[in-house]
Amino acid sequence: MIKKLLTILTIFLSLNCTSTLAKYGPDEEINIKVYEKISPAIVAIDAQLKDGLSAGTGCIVTPDGLILTGSHVVENHKSIDVTTHNGQTYKAQFVAQMGKNRDLALIKIEPKRPLKTVSFGDSENVKVGQRVLSIGNPFGFSNTLTQGIISRIDYVKNRFQTDAAINPGCSGGPLLNSDGEVIGISQSIYNPDQNISNIGIGFAIPSNDAVRFIATVDKRKIYPNKTK
Fold first, then answer.
1. Is 72 one of the catalytic residues?
2. Using the 8-state DSSP alphabet, how is residue 78 labeled?
3. Is residue 171 annotated as a catalytic residue, yes or no?
4. Do β-strands 174-176 and 131-136 pair in parallel, antiparallel, or remain unpaired?
5. What confidence tens digit (pLDDT) does each residue in 56-106 have?
6. Among 100, 138, 116, residue whose Cα is nearest residue 59
7. Of 70, 74, 191, 209, whose Cβ has the fewest other Cβ atoms within 10 Å?
């Protein structure tokens, strides 16, 4: 009798698990997996500038709190606040800024315990039509996921064009491939309406530029770190 009940319970649990998995399609499962893997390594940035407040996004690149973001997010700052995915806020120090027209910067916080980090993919392998995901803090809505494709590669300006929704507050956030690797850093949108809304034309800096920049600053070479 007990053996029969155990058999019935095993079948029930098996069917229940199958039913749960069946709720999501293959594309949805990729989105969920990437988001759950990467979102703990993404932060919101609020920088007090001389002429007001600048909001953006950052990618944690080392467990001890080195963060990659857009230089225009923190340029000419008075103070920088960083909020992690669990709502904890830190004061950040400015570390370095990439050269002219590159729009990348590094800042540093001092966490009490090691942080989750992003991993980088090879942006040389990026193709037009490739599916991409973006995580950012548009208009203060933290850790927002959007999806799209690589719409164009601008070889002259060395940047990716994407239709994944990138809005004010997303600058410095990751553009991700389906494996959850950072292949670009969100930079800007085409803004005929002065940044009021996204119209499906956004731009990202290739990740290889970011990796080279980090290497010039952080001589420990403990990146890119695989998110666990």
1. yes
2. E
3. yes
4. antiparallel
5. 999 999 999 999 999 999 988 899 999 999 999 999 999 999 876 679 999
6. 116
7. 191
Q: What angle do CA 83, 223, 123 make, to 5 degrees?
A: 95
Enumerate long-range contacts of 49-56, CB under 8 Å, 24 or more apart: 49/75, 49/76, 49/77, 49/78, 50/76, 50/78, 55/137, 55/140, 55/168, 55/169, 56/137, 56/169, 56/170, 56/171, 56/172, 56/173
Structure token digits, residue 208: 């290889």
**CA angle, 209 then 88 then 221, to 5°:** 30
Cα dist. 118→40, 99, 130, 174 in Å?
Answer: 9, 23, 20, 9
Q: Domains for the chain: give ranges and CATH numbers.
A: 40-117+212-217 (2.40.10.10), 123-208 (2.40.10.10)
CA–CA separation, 226 vs 228, rounded Å?
A: 6
Mean pLDDT of the chain: 86
pLDDT of residue 12: 44
Q: How confident is residue 227, by pLDDT bands cut at 50, 70 and 90?
A: very low
Catalytic residue among 54, 71, 85, 103: 103
Taking only the tens place, the pLDDT of each residue in 2-61 is 555 444 444 444 545 444 545 889 999 999 999 999 999 999 999 998 888 889 999 999
Torsion 68-70-71-76 (CA) sign:
negative
Which one from 171, 186, 188, 207 is the annotated catalytic residue?
171
Check if the beta carbon of residue 154 is closer than 8 Å to that of residue 187.
no
